[in-house]
Amino acid sequence: MKTTVLSVDIDTQRNRRKQIIEAVKRRKGERHTLNCCTFKTEGSKSAIITAARGLGIDNDVAQYIANLIPITRGFTWSIHDCLYGNEEEERKPVTEFVNEVKKIPDLLETALNIEGLISGRSIHASAVYLFNEDFTEHNARMKAPNGTYVTQFNMHDSDFQGGLKFDFLTLSSLDAVRHCMDLLIEAGHMQWQGSLRATYNKYLHPDVLDYETKEMWDWVAENKVVNLFQFNTQVGLQAAKRIQPHSLVELATANSIMRLMVTDGEQPIDTYIRYKNDISEWYKCMREDYHLTEEEIKVVEPYLLPVYGVGDTQEIVMELSMDKKIADFSVAESNKLRKSIAKKNKELQQKMKQTFFEKGKKIGTSDNLLNYIWKEVVGKQLG
């Protein structure tokens, strides 16, 4: 019988992860815990270089051909995509690569056979599987190069073997918080309460922090907080400076908005800033561009007014689609819509768009409101 794994993500200090995993193994027992194995596979670029080396082709030539393989949004194209394109990913054949690789006998055929082959194994940085029974009831184990026991299956296959998967993730921000606590205690600004948890709860727990301090938010807007979680990149710093968040909701919205990009028209972050500076601009868009009635505006206000009229998260898309005055989606349907956005599945997106308009019209929702939701909210998530 096929089972699926339950997964728990835990954020930890970078310098404590190994200790935490070892503590879990001691508590649960060696035969009830397994680190997850990862397998290194030959990518398209390395396949070209490896094939060339085996065929005695000059390394400079191999590197030149490999460098013709494009990288889009951090993902390297496959050799197949370079040769034939990929309609779903909107990729066209790479003519220069095709011409160069076909000049050398057997290079293309050899590289295609090498691409995707397993060339090494290692330990997954964070994933650990826990079992109530002996591991042999669910998985199999082997030793990684450093002697640690790991699963013989990769993560995808191990997930279907059952058990509980813990992902022990690391956040440098947690290391920074701990270091700051030590400095504050040393300087006498905080008093040690007998344990790390008690000290944190007294001084830094969200329930005891003051979110109304204007000076704190001014520091965020002026980029004076150099290690602000999620905003410690150039993109994040620019977003904080432009958006000028002065509340926790605005900060969370800024964190979402700065990740959204559209191919045509005004970028979501620019729309958000414009509406934030003058909320009447949002109402003008609804009334003049989409001809929404006052009643229809009242339907969307509870969802969009707190974020100045810009749907910043996939959860807002879900909530709007489930509203009984919009499309009356079920939870399952709204989640399918969310997945189509998250997975960038264009076929599913088209299917969900059709369902959205069909269900909306069935309950009497106007085309104006449906078009507004799809173009202005869903559209900004689709990019």
**How many domains, in number, for the residues?**
4
Classification by helices and strands: alpha+beta
Task: Determine the fraction of residues in helical runs and give it as a percent range.
Answer: 40-55%
* Multimeric organization: single chain
**Overall pLDDT, averaged?**
92
Biggest sheet: strands, sense, closure?
4 strands, mixed
Q: Quick one: how many beta strands?
A: 8
Low-confidence stretches: none
Rg value: 26 Å
Strand content: 5-15%
Number of helices: 19
Shape, per Cα inertia axes: globular
> What are the secondary-structure elements, in order, as H or E?
EHEHHEEHHHEEEHEHHHHHHHHHHHH
Strand numbers in spatial order across the main sheet: 1-8-5-2
Distance between the termini: 40 Å
Short overview:
By secondary structure, the chain is an alpha+beta fold. Helices cover 50% and strands 12% of the residues. It has four domains: 6-41 and 119-170, no CATH class; 44-116, Arc Repressor Mutant, subunit A (Orthogonal Bundle), CATH 1.10.10; 172-209, no CATH class; 268-382, no CATH class.
Could you give the topology of this structure?
Layout (H helix, E strand, L loop, with lengths): L5 E7 L4 H12 L4 E9 L2 H11 L4 H8 L4 E2 L2 E2 L2 H6 L10 H7 L5 H8 L3 E13 L10 E3 L5 E3 L3 H4 L5 E7 L1 H15 L9 H8 L10 H8 L12 H10 L4 H10 L10 H10 L2 H10 L4 H11 L9 H9 L8 H12 L3 H17 L4 H16 L1
Parallel strand pairs: 1-8
Antiparallel strand pairs: 2-5, 3-4, 5-8, 6-7
Helix pairs in contact: 2-3, 2-6, 11-12, 16-17, 16-19, 17-18
